[in-house]
Amino acid sequence: MELRRTLLTALALVAFNAAFSQNYKQLWDKATVAMEKDLPKTALKELRGIYSVASKHNNTGEMLKAAVCALQMQQDISPDSAKAEIKKIDSIAGNEKRPAERALWMLVAAKQHNDNADFRDSSEADKAADYLSEATKDLSIFNNRKAEEFVPAISKGSDSKYYNGDLLNVVCRNAIEIWGSVNSSSYSLKEIDQKRNELAGRFIDHYRKTGNANAVVLATLDSLEHSNTDFFSGKSNDFITDGFLYNNLGAGNAKRPTVGSSATKSRMASFFGRLNYNYNDRYLVQFTFREDGSSKFGENNKYAFFPSVGLGWLVSNEKFLENNKTISKLKLHTSFGMTGNSEIGTYRSIATMSQGTTILNGSMVTVSYLDKMPNANLKWEKTAQFDLGFELGLFNNRLNFDVSWYYKYTSDLLLNRPVPESTGYSSIMDNIGAVSNRGLDILVKAYPVQTKDFQWSSTLNLSFNKNNVEKLDEGASVDPVSGKRQITLDGFVGYDMLIREGEPLSSFYGYKRAGIYDGVPSHWDPETMNIPGTVGEKVTYKERQIIGNGLPDWMGSFVNTFSYKNFDLTLDMQFSWGADIMQEYYHSTVARFLTNGLDRIYKEAWHPTLNPNGKEQALRLNNFGMGANNQADSDWVCDGSYLRCNLLQLGYTFDKNLISKIGLSNLRVYAGVNNLFLITSSDYNGYDPDNSSRLGGNNWGTNRQFFTYPRARTFTFGLNVAF
After folding, report:
1. Is the distance from CB of 356 to CB of 369 less than 8 angstroms?
2. Cβ(570)–Cβ(721) under 8 Å?
3. Are 534 and 627 in contact (CB under 8 A)?
4. Of the segments 77-81, 271-275, 289-293, 338-342, which one has the largest average pLDDT value?
5. Cα dist. 372→72, 292, 348, 352, 364 in Å?
6. pLDDT tens digits, residue range 484-534?
7. What is the mean pLDDT of residues 578-585?
8. Of 11, 325, 337, 440, which has the fewest Cβ atoms less than 10 A away?
9. Beta strand 213-235 pairing with 303-305
10. Which of 632, 649, 648, 645 lies closest to 690, judged by CA?
11. HEC letters along 158-200
């Protein structure tokens, strides 16, 4: 691991040093001399000159080096001098419209009068904080590089007056100092600390241009995450009054009041880096390297390595497509990479101790026991993905396509695998097999009408995915019919979720309904069917089979935006096709008597003369027992396809010349409806097909619904005001 991290760092440093240009050597020599002679005003002037020249050449790397170098300077400048410096910097940076560098330079100046008593109320500090807030939207200026590596001109040893640690600390310390001071009344200390962590988790792109070559390098970064949880609960009952609320649990008359508590701790260590290369804005290469370690996994498998590579060809920048009137943009791209999954509970790889009570020799005693099977071989779940696609813009980008085909192979799936009861446990967290996903993502964006008064834009998003279980380990059972390994889990009243080789995840495994028993035995096959003893009860096949799948074939959205003069209208449609839904609420609304039932209980109830073709069991004056089989079967499965109007919104923007008279720069009023309508299949009887009331312990129970709460229809009225 250490060798790999060293190689990643070396690669980033070599690439950076190769990109460092000598074009600014003379400018840097002047600034260095001024810094060494302790001439702060002269040094700032030279550094500002480097920034000005670099900004004209769009050289972010040189601009940043100049800003960081200025941040190292610890001399005092009078408030008046600082204000003058601010105006000069603001003029240069503001003209270039570069909020990130602008914020840094504002901080350089504001920092010079940090000791001034009026600092925290000064307009200059407020302006610096505003720029920084704007810059945090794109924090490509931060990195974890050492300052002396990043700014070779001031590398004079650890005792250098202008060197003070990591570049990350140099920038973040000053940035958060200013930002936190000005915003201390708006943000808590915790929020300010979270902002620093946000800054620390980002990278910096070193953009270097030489002739026809562009190199973009990201250095390596180490990250360490800590997760701690603490839980406490207390319970009592039989209070003589509710006046105590929860403040006097001891006042209850419970014979055995209960208390509980727990604590968990986990750690995640990450080491990652990235290298981008761009040649002449035509040929693009990106390498990423990532190694993650998690305390959740087995002793010998805590770390895993996840590399990736991406290639791109911007064909539209080639000479043979120059000035093409039809093709505005054409880019071909492909990539291969690996990612990891560690989303499991803590302590799943080790045995943990629990405590309870039992009766021994007629007395209740406290006992301790191991409540979880250990698995020292538990390791990361890994996904390798390959994709191939293109981006195409036609007719001056009035019609745009972004199409990608992908193939994902996920190995070492993390799952609570069932184990024989003879072990004393019901399951163990394990790596159980492999799953593949292949699909197609299509994005179409068009601007059909673009006139002075009327504009119309449309975005169509389509996603197709095909899932398949590739293999399961030897611990899985074998299906006697197909001979394939399978695992059943998360069952409910007669059906289970099935994971079987050659089948997709989220498969419903249960009994297929054959019909309603009419009392004529010759109409039914006792060898293959479960024939009830009561006329009017359902008949099912004996062998369980796959009766549905909760994963959709296609899903997407269609968004249209219309603008006519000052009016705007947005219509957002969402759709899904091909998924099945297991209507678990049938257990209570169909297989019982009329109380709280669906109308199909009587509309489709079987009757020997009135409705001999009825699909539901005969009406009974009882909820359970004779004639009321409430076990799940294929009749509970329905088509989960739907079309939803996600949003319809109408707005009006007032003329700026009119609202400027009352001191406003922008005023827009709008009214909208979310979830305006929903169209579903005829056999779906729930409230919302885009919902799952329970996913099960392994989160693979897509589209299982047991009285899911419906999505609300929301009416919104509002306005946007800018001063």
Report:
1. yes
2. no
3. yes
4. 338-342
5. 54, 25, 8, 6, 24
6. 999 988 888 999 999 999 999 999 999 999 999 999 999 999 999 999 988
7. 93
8. 325
9. unpaired
10. 645
11. CCCCCCCCEHHHHHHHHHHHHHHHHCCCCCCHHHHHHHHHHHH
- d(C-alpha 185, C-alpha 45), whole Å: 35
Note the Cα 639 to chain centre separation in Å: 28
* Whether the predicted pLDDT of 99 surpasses 50: no
**Is the four-CA dihedral 174, 179, 182, 185 of positive or negative sign?**
negative
Q: From its phi and psi, is residue 10 left (phi > 0), alpha (psi between -120 and 50) or beta?
A: alpha
The closest of 499, 530, 504 to 516, measured between CA atoms, is 530
Q: Is 509 within 8 Å of 495 (Cβ atoms)? A: yes
Strands 704-705 and 580-583, bridge-based pairing: parallel
Structure tokens given for 443 = 């994005």
Q: Who contacts 541 (Cβ-Cβ below 8 Å, separation ≥6)?
A: 511, 512, 514, 528, 529, 530
Task: Give the closest residue to 578 by CA, choosing from 404, 436, 693, 703.
Answer: 703
Distance between CA atoms of residues 706 and 344, nearest Å: 25
Q: What are phi and psi of 470, to 5 degrees?
A: -80, -45
pLDDT digits (tens, 9 = 90+) for 43-92: 777 777 776 777 666 565 566 566 655 654 434 444 454 445 445 544 54
How far apart (Å, rounded) are the C-alpha atoms in residues 396 and 255? 79
Contacts of 625 (CB under 8 A, 6+ apart): none
CB 659 within 8 A of CB 666: yes
The stretch 592-616 carries a mean pLDDT of 82
- CA pair distance 128, 178, nearest whole angstrom: 8
What is the three-class DSSP state of 220?
A: strand
Q: How far apart are CA 320 and CA 531, in angstroms?
A: 74
Token pair 């290369």 in the structure block, residue = 277
Query: Which residue carries 């960081």 as its tokens?
Result: 68
117 vs 194: CA distance, rounded Å: 28
User: CA-CA distance, 295 to 227, in Å (whole number)?
Assistant: 11
Q: Rounded to a whole number, what is the largest CA-CA distance in the chain?
A: 108
**Lowest-pLDDT range, 256-260, 335-339, 470-474?**
256-260
For 233-242, write each residue's pLDDT tens digit. 888 887 888 8
Local confidence band at 176 (pLDDT 50, 70, 90 cut-offs): very low
Pure H helices in 576-659: 586-589, 600-603, 656-659
- Residue 368: which residues within 8 A CB-CB, separation 6 or more? 353, 354, 355
What pLDDT sits at residue 473? 87
